[in-house]
């Protein structure tokens, strides 16, 4: 995690960074052609569509974490089997623009959720794996870092 014990200011900053990323990345993603979306960036297992699909899956999984962890002091979530999720949903077979729009809209909703989390919930434990328990606030901050990491992979020039 990039920031420990994230407070309201850190989460608000993460929400602002996510908003800025969405504004910057959306037109760049739309500019990629369908053919380009099927290309694998150098040394990557997934093509660009599948990387974006992974980010959609990340939004879906984190949506549950962001909402449910507000209600209890400590909550364990099932492990995320990313390769299974990406393969099972067949992102390669979906139109690029639909994936880009879904990614943007889902993340806009997550910005809304992040902005309204009660400060007293930010310290609640969101446990995704035994090795990596984190507070809800830390998890929100790290979500934006993770998203930016994978967008950089999508935008890598071959």
Name some characteristics of this structure.
Four Helix Bundle (Hemerythrin (Met), subunit A), 3 strands, globular, mainly alpha
Describe this structure in words.
The chain has 158 residues and is mainly alpha-helical. The protein has one domain: Four Helix Bundle (Hemerythrin (Met), subunit A) (Up-down Bundle), CATH 1.20.120. Helix content is 61%, strand content 6%. It is built from six helices and three strands; from the N terminus they run αααβααββα. Helix 1 packs parallel to helix 6 and helix 3 packs antiparallel against helix 6. The radius of gyration is 16 Å and the shape is globular.
The helicity comes to 55-70%
Estimate the strand proportion: 5-15%
Tell me the series of helices and strands, N- to C-terminal. Answer: HHHEHHEEH
CATH topology: Four Helix Bundle (Hemerythrin (Met), subunit A)
Provide the residue-averaged pLDDT: 94
Order of neighbouring strands in the sheet with most strands? 1-2-3
**Number of helix segments?**
6
Largest sheet: 3 strands, mixed
State the CATH architecture. Answer: Up-down Bundle
Number of strands: 3
Q: List segments where confidence is low: pLDDT < 50 over at least 5 consecutive residues.
A: none
